[in-house]
Write a structure and sequence with these properties.
By secondary structure, the protein is an alpha+beta fold. Helices cover 20% and strands 40% of the residues. The protein has 3 helices and 12 strands; from the N terminus they run αβββββββαββββαβ. The strands form 2 sheets. Strands 1, 5, 6, 7, 8, 9, 10 and 11 form an 8-stranded antiparallel sheet that branches. A 4-stranded antiparallel sheet has the order 2-3-4-12, with no helix packed on it.
């Protein structure tokens, strides 16, 4: 039997870099705020609240938070050897020429392909425009794709635009893992404005 090496941390970094690229595609990049977003947020096991942008999101209480990069405000991972499933929340200034919210998922896929030329076979499993708790529109997408020749991932993405910000919640795991795309989407949909 072949020993499967998922190299999860390497793929984790590539995926998060792709997420950063996507956020930059629909935003103006770093907001240049005087204080890091992490200082304006509160994380209690399983619950992240961002006071500056008035939202919160839940993740399983046994997960742990990891250092953030770029436009990320939260990176929470399952407390296991591979750090998957995981959730990443990113916020960036919305560009004046940002893609329409309905087109955020295809823009995400294109950004991932640019960041990782080995990423391919993106397949949308579901796509739906929803209303968040305050009536704000959001796009939810579940999809799977090949990170490389051996690593296949399943993901859920929630994207919304509010107050000139692009906010994305990405949840992912290895394809065929115990966490289904529907469960990943359920986790992403815990996002709510305060």
């Amino acid at each position: 039997m072949r020993n499967q090496d998922y190299r999860p941390w390497g793929y984790f970094v590539v995926l998060l870099a792709a997420m950063f690229v996507l956020t930059s595609c629909v935003s103006g990049g770093n907001s240049g705020a005087a204080a890091p977003a992490a200082e304006k947020a509160k994380t209690v096991a399983g619950d992240y609240t961002n006071a500056e942008n008035s939202f919160s999101v839940n993740y399983p209480p046994n997960w742990e938070t990891k250092p953030i990069k770029g436009d990320e405000v939260l990176r929470a991972v399952n407390n296991n050897a591979w750090g998957i499933p995981l959730m990443v929340v990113s916020i960036a200034d919305l560009k004046t020429d940002a893609v329409a919210l309905e087109d955020a998922a295809p823009a995400y896929f294109e950004a991932m392909k640019k960041e990782n030329p080995n990423a391919k076979r993106f397949k949308v499993l579901s796509k739906e425009m929803i209303k968040l708790n305050d009536g704000t529109d959001a796009l939810t997408t579940t999809f799977k794709y090949s990170m490389d020749a051996t690593t296949k991932l399943q993901c859920a993405l929630l994207t919304t635009y509010k107050n000139k910000k692009s906010i994305s919640v990405l949840t992912l795991t290895i394809l065929g893992g115990a966490t289904s795309p529907d469960k990943l989407l359920e986790m992403a949909k815990t996002f709510r404005f305060l």
